Amino acid sequence: QIDLRRANNCGIMLTKVKMPLPDLMSAILALDDTVLDADQVENLIKFTPTKEEIELLKGYKGDKQDLGECEQFFMELMKLPRVDSKLRVFLFKIQFRSQVSDLKRNLNVVNSSAEEIRGSVKLKRIMQTILSLGNALNQGTARGSAVGFRLDSLLKLSDTRARNNKMTLMHYLSKVLSEKLPELLDFPKDLASLELAAKVQLKSLAEEMQAINKGLEKVEQELTISENDGPVSEIFCKTLKGFLSGAEAEVRALTSLYSNVGRNADALALYFGEDPARCPFEQVVTTLHNFVKLFTRSHEENCKQLDLEKKKAQKEAEPEKAKGESENEKDELSHPIKELDISLQSQPQTASAK
Questions:
Q1: Phi and psi at residue 50, to the nearest 5°
Q2: CB under 8 Å to 206, separation ≥6 — which residues?
Q3: Where do the domains of the chain lie?
Q4: Distances from the Cα of 336 to the Cα of 35, 48, 117, 130, 333, angstroms
Q5: Rounded to the nearest 5°, which phi and psi values hold at 140?
Q6: Less crowded by CB within 10 Å, the N or C end of the chain?
Q7: Is the pTM of this model over 0.85?
Q8: Considering the chain, what is the average pLDDT of its residues?
């Protein structure tokens, strides 16, 4: 007697499949993903008979029609050698296309972002500007002649404030660029893939690549064994061979792309003078993504402040008074306080000198 709860759940599953058992078995053997989808095959895997259930039904000599729906289903599955393995191969075949597509898309995002970052002349010039600002602010100190700075110093620009506590170094950078190098302000456009890249975890991509390779190995193993099954697995083997011929070529290309991505990810850290082991790809792109967001926000705040000042100046009845306030504000913004510090370093590790 099959466990009643399991038998009931099996019956519910078969009701959802909505096809006679002979047709279901034909679809399994033909690996027909137009008839069965991934969810249905996953459910079939859950309800393959256990060793105990096989032993229980193996000795049954009566009329199969007297058995319950679940028992009849188990009896049909028992006709297929290694049915669990065959169903898992079927599931891999169904999911293969989307797995490869998803992984390829994420690998291309990594490649694109690395290429965009290293190729952005505007970003490089901004890094050089930050270095110059830092050296000017720290003039006369041990940090005043730095040749580079750590990448994470970019985020400290928003934490470093002037004495009046109103302006950060990020605001000041935006002001300098607006006045001296306005052509650099749209540098985020160079980094179109950055936001997507900041969501990618290389460890996850490695796991996906490994899962695809292992899945393909199991397909190859099952094909080799199934070729000795005889007529029962003939259609299964023929279909699997057709799938494998294309899948193996795709995985070879994917493996090559994956290796290339690993090299590019490491090269990106090295480009900024960082050790890939200490500052991996994820840290580089997340830092840059946050820098872009902070810079954009500071620039918008500067623009709003300037707009308010213009409106205020227009309302002033006394031109001389307005002029005086404007000069005071200009003096405040043009003389950053030496307390501003972005932790510049004198070692030849640089986020700009490349």
A1: -80, 170
A2: none
A3: 4-79, 81-309+338-354
A4: 70, 73, 29, 13, 6
A5: 90, 0
A6: N
A7: no
A8: 87
Quick one: how many helices (H) and strands (E) in the chain?
A: 13, 0
Distances (CA, A) of 272 to 27, 57, 259: 55, 67, 21
Task: Name the token pair of 287.
Answer: 């830092």
The Cα 46–Cα 55 span in angstroms is 18
What is the rounded average pLDDT of the residues 198-213? 97
Q: Which fold has domain 4-79?
A: Methane Monooxygenase Hydroxylase; Chain G, domain 1 (1.20.58)
SS3 353: coil
Find the mean pLDDT for residues 203-215: 97
Task: For residues 105 and 110, give the distance between their C-alpha atoms in angstroms, rounded to a whole number.
Answer: 9
Q: How far apart are CA 36 and CA 184, in angstroms?
A: 54
Please report the beta strands in the chain, taking only residues with DSSP state E, as ranges in sequence order.
none
Q: Would you give the DSSP letter of residue 225?
A: H
Fold: same for 4-79 and 81-309+338-354: yes
For the stretch 126-151, pLDDT in tens is 999 999 988 888 776 766 567 678 89
98-102 long-range CB contacts below 8 Å, 24 or more apart?
99/208, 99/211, 99/212, 100/212, 100/250, 100/251, 100/254, 102/208
pLDDT at 263: 96
The structure tokens listed for 302 are 């500067």
User: Nearest-5° angle of CA 20, CA 85, CA 221?
Assistant: 135
CATH number belonging to domain 81-309+338-354 = 1.20.58.2220
Spatial distance between the Cα atoms of 181 and 129, rounded to a whole number of angstroms? 10
In 89-115, which positions are buried (b, 16+ CB within 10 angstroms) versus exposed (e)?
bbbbbbbbeebbeebeebbebbbbbbe
Closest CA to 284 of 295, 273, 268, 261: 268
Q: If we measure between CA atoms, which residue out of 297, 293, 287, 302 comes closest to residue 172?
A: 302
